[in-house]
Design goal:
The chain is an all-alpha fold. Helices cover 70% and strands 0% of the residues. The chain is rod-shaped. The termini are far apart. The mean pLDDT is 92.
């Protein structure tokens, strides 16, 4: 898939996107659990 070195800024940008995506996923899970609390 890749051939050659990856630029440092590209790696930092990819890590930033990965971390922010995980955080937004967990934030959405938390809101979903809070919204569905009455269904127990």
């Amino acid at each position: 898939l890749f051939a050659g070195p990856v630029a440092e800024t590209s790696a930092l940008f990819a890590m930033f996107l990965y971390v922010s995506g995980l955080q937004s996923l967990f934030f959405a899970m938390w809101f979903d659990m809070d919204y569905n609390k009455r269904l127990r």
